[in-house]
Each structure stands twice: as structure tokens, then as C-alpha cells.
Write a structure and sequence with these properties.
It comes from Quercus lobata. The protein is of the alpha/beta class and 270 residues long. The protein is built from six helices and eight strands; from the N terminus they run βββαβααβαβαβαβ. The protein has helices at residues 54-64, 91-97, 100-116, 129-138, 170-181, 209-228; strands spanning 21-25, 28-33, 40-45, 69-73, 121-127, 157-164, 188-197, 249-250. The longest helix has 20 residues, at 209-228.
Length: 270
């Protein structure tokens, strides 16, 4: 999270974009799309730009179109990062207020709200800041899940990475993949997308045909992974994708976990 890539290509936020609606859910303002009666749900945990990012909501609508109820909570309580380069903006202060521990607790409240609706299978994808939240969440016994670099992985894991990612370079992700493949009881998958940078899954330029193609490919991979595992057959499932890919932890920083270190993520406490 200390990498400048986290703050590059900020989206133009829109409170009215998307096919869904904004409602209070689990104590948070939440973008909700898809059938309210679906027993299958996906939580999208945003990057630092929050839940009003058009590409993120577009992704939520796409997932909802395949039969899932999709929720995108406002984990920043109306205070996403708008302009990282604003001289009056203090990223350290912002991260102290919007820390991943708080995000973790808020996500648990959303999960509880989904369960109270009768949802039987829950998947989650985290982007950048959201990826770190998901890493913590995946080690929760409440979910019976663990994250990529956690030694006790308990769910199928997919890692979609970017070739150009200072926080989680391909070499590091491949190491994670090797550790995961050693756990034969759980399926794992590592895929590095060439020519794309950290955040490519939801911060792509819609006018760039190549960028759109890569993002859509990662979206399809995510949907296929959710369909292949858990959702519909398993009561609890977390998908984790890297570098803003979508299949689970998009654009997340894995530094400091599982004995693999690269760079620094001190701003997030890791």
C-alpha cells in the first residue's frame, strides 16, 4: 500500500453510476446489484478510491448478471481518496482512520448481514487496500478460510497478477503459487497478465482496447474460479486476486506474509 501505483489513475467517482442501488447494509452504505433472492453472494472490497468507482460498479453488475447478489460497501464512510497529489492530503493520517483492521470488522458485519438474508455461499474479491483486508479476513475462523501466503490455506485460491507491479512482482507471486501447490488438498491457480500494471482490473482506461481486453479476461477468470469452486457447492469461499485482477485479491500487497518479503507495506501495519 505504500507504492505510488496504488494511487495512480484515479477514477472519476460517480454516486449514480451502475445498474444497482445504494442502500444501508451491514451498517454501511452499500452498492447492491443482482437478485435480492439469490443464495450466492460476492463482496467486492474496493481500493482506496472507494465504492463509487464506475469500473468497480460495472464489474459488480457483470458478476450480478451471472446470478450472484453483489455488494460493494463504502468502507471509507464517504471519505475515499480523491486526489493523492493534493498538498493538503496526508496519506498517513488517512490510513490511520481507514485502517485494515476496521475494514476487516466492517466486512464481517456485511457477511453477517448476508447470512441473515439466507445467503448460503459467499465469495469475496479485494482490490489493493481491499486485498489487504481480505488477507486478514481469510484467516478468520469464522470464515474457515485463509489467504494466499497464509500457512493454513483452507479454500481454493486463485492469484491473478500484473507483470508490472512493484508491490507484488511476478517472481513473488510465483513463490506464493509454489507454496500453494504444495497443499494438494486445495486447488490453486496463478496467472500473470503481461503488459499490465498494478490496478489494471478496475482502473483501466475504457478507451484503451488492450487494457479493456486484459481487464475483461481477468473478470472472466474470476467468474470461472468462483463457479468452479465453492459458490453453489461450498458454504464459505474466498477468492483472492492480486494486482487488481478480480478473482480474489485484486491489486493487493502480500509483503510480510508466509516468509516472503519484498518492499515495504508499513503504512498498513504489515
Amino acid at each position: 500500500m505504500s507504492s505510488s501505483q496504488c494511487f495512480e489513475n484515479p477514477p472519476t467517482l460517480s454516486s449514480t453510476c451502475g445498474e444497482g442501488t445504494v442502500q444501508e447494509f451491514g451498517g454501511l452504505q452499500t452498492y447492491i446489484t443482482g437478485s435480492p433472492d439469490s443464495k450466492l453472494a460476492i463482496i467486492l472490497i474496493s481500493d482506496v478510491f472507494g465504492y463509487e468507482a464506475p469500473n468497480l460498479r460495472k464489474l459488480a453488475d457483470k458478476i450480478a448478471g451471472t446470478g450472484f447478489l453483489v455488494v460493494v460497501p463504502d468502507f471509507f464512510y464517504g471519505d475515499p481518496i480523491i486526489d493523492f497529489n493534493d498538498p493538503n492530503f496526508d496519506v498517513n493520517s488517512w490510513l490511520k482512520v481507514h485502517n485494515v483492521d476496521k475494514g476487516n470488522e466492517d466486512t464481517k458485519a456485511v457477511i453477517a448481514a448476508l447470512r441473515s438474508k439466507g445467503v448460503s455461499a459467499i465469495g469475496a474479491a479485494g482490490f489493493c487496500w481491499g486485498g489487504v483486508v481480505l488477507v486478514k479476513l481469510a484467516s478468520s475462523t469464522e470464515l474457515h478460510a485463509a489467504v494466499i501466503l497464509h500457512p493454513d490455506v483452507k479454500v481454493p485460491i486463485a492469484i491473478l497478477g500484473a507483470e508490472i507491479d512493484h508491490m507484488s512482482p511476478p517472481e513473488q507471486l510465483k513463490q506464493f503459487g509454489e507454496k500453494l501447490s504444495a497443499k494438494s488438498e486445495f486447488d490453486s491457480f496463478v496467472k500473470i497478465f503481461p503488459g499490465v500494471a498494478h490496478g489494471w482490473t478496475v482502473k483501466y482506461n475504457v478507451e484503451d482496447e488492450s487494457a479493456v481486453k486484459s481487464a475483461e479476461e481477468s473478470h472472466l477468470d474470476m467468474l470461472n474460479w468462483f463457479t468452479k469452486h465453492g459458490i453453489g457447492t461450498c458454504s464459505k469461499y474466498l477468492s483472492i486476486c492480486h494486482a487488481n485482477p478480480i478473482p480474489i485479491i485484486l491489486a493487493n500487497n502480500l509483503n510480510g506474509f508466509d516468509g516472503v518479503k519484498h518492499g515495504s507495506s508499513k503504512l498498513l501495519g504489515y
